[in-house]
Design brief:
Elements (H helix, E strand, L loop, with lengths): L9 H10 L9 H14 L3 E7 L3 E8 L5 E3 L4 H5 L6 E3 L12 H4 L6 E8 L5 E9 L7 H22 L12 H17 L4 E9 L1 H8 L1 H18 L5 E4 L4 E7 L3 H22 L6 E9 L7 H17 L3
Antiparallel strand pairs: 1-2, 1-6, 2-3, 4-5, 5-6, 7-9, 7-10, 8-9
Helix pairs in contact: 2-5, 7-8, 8-9
Length: 319
């Protein structure tokens, strides 16, 4: 059994997946309908809508098999999300990558597998719509197109979920997505007896950019700022656009020295961007942060409020 490679965008892909708040969610008819349709159309015993998490496959919908999740290691869905088109295995028993997979040598004795990766609007692949049979088979071009059409339907359903948790302009988490991910990080830090820090950003003099250069240019500035956050912060950090020109970042296990280091790095990166972009204006911001130590009894909402207060103290000096 050959393990699937990890895609270059893995950290961003996982961030997007978790921001959807779809993992471990309750069954939904809109996804169950698709797996029922796929199973019936192609006369296969099993059809899945799978989501590829860090070390597992979680089934948003499974028709024909009573499972919720499977290990990602050596999985076919883990391989399928590396490509852009149909991932087809006519006979897994003859495929060197999967012939000794537990799903092949044990129940359900998988032989045939076909899947299309499911993308979201930022291009990251969340999982697959797949067909499984315990008999070898192939797919003609017409059936391949039909499966692709069903996968596009599944993508539209995921997109509906995505709109509720991601900021449509910058494609990072919105407030709702951030609150979910940040609370998860807080819980982990509490279990690991780690500090956590929350940083609040607010762009300075943003309205004049819209007034003088147009709202499209204002949107470009917001996207540029969010891209720098994604670029300069750690993969483990949770960040979001929570308002018009307001951004936040939650840093797990970060104390004063780490915060200062990343803020200096971020400021340097923004200065470099302003010089290179030369768009007739510079992006400036005010920032404030709060550190929560393991023994501090403080909620996420209070943490955000405290960092906001620190940020506005800085902003008031720049008015």
């Amino acid at each position: 059994m050959i393990d699937a490679q990890i895609s270059p965008d893995e950290s961003q892909r996982l961030e997007t997946l978790r921001a959807l708040k779809i993992l471990d969610s309750e069954p939904e008819e809109r996804f169950n309908r698709l797996t029922r349709m796929a199973k019936r159309m192609f006369s296969v015993p099993i059809s899945l809508v799978s989501l590829v998490d860090e070390d597992r496959l979680w089934c948003k919908s499974a028709d024909g098999i009573d499972i919720t999740e499977l290990p990602r290691k050596g999985s076919m869905c883990g391989q399928a999300i590396l490509g852009d088109d149909l991932f087809l295995i006519p006979d897994a028993h003859k495929d060197v990558r999967f012939k000794d997979s537990p799903l092949v040598i044990n129940d359900p004795y998988l032989r045939f597998y076909a899947a299309f990766p499911l993308r979201v609007s930022n291009g990251h692949k969340m999982g697959t719509l797949c067909l499984i049979d315990n008999q070898p088979r192939d797919m003609n071009p017409e059936d391949q197109e039909l499966l692709k059409d069903l996968a596009l339907m599944a993508e539209k359903e995921i997109a509906a979920v995505q709109l509720s948790t991601l900021d449509e302009l910058t494609m990072i988490s919105n407030r709702r997505g951030f609150l979910s991910l940040a609370q998860h990080s807080l819980n982990i830090c509490k279990r690991n007896n780690q500090a956590v820090s929350l940083i609040s950003f607010d762009l300075d003099h943003f309205k004049p950019i819209n007034d003088q250069f147009g709202h499209a240019e204002g949107d470009r500035a917001l996207v540029a700022f969010s891209n720098l956050i994604k670029q300069e912060f750690r993969d483990s950090d949770v960040f979001a656009r929570i308002g018009g020109d307001e951004f936040v970042a939650l840093l797990s296990g970060a104390e004063e020295d780490q915060i200062q280091e990343i803020l200096i790095r971020f400021s340097t990166a923004l200065d470099r961007y302003n010089k290179q972009a030369a768009r007739g204006y510079d992006i400036h911001y005010s920032v404030g942060y709060t550190i929560k130590h393991p023994d501090d009894q403080i909620s996420l909402e209070q943490l955000m409020e405290n960092s906001d207060d620190e940020m506005y103290k800085q902003k008031s000096t720049r008015a």
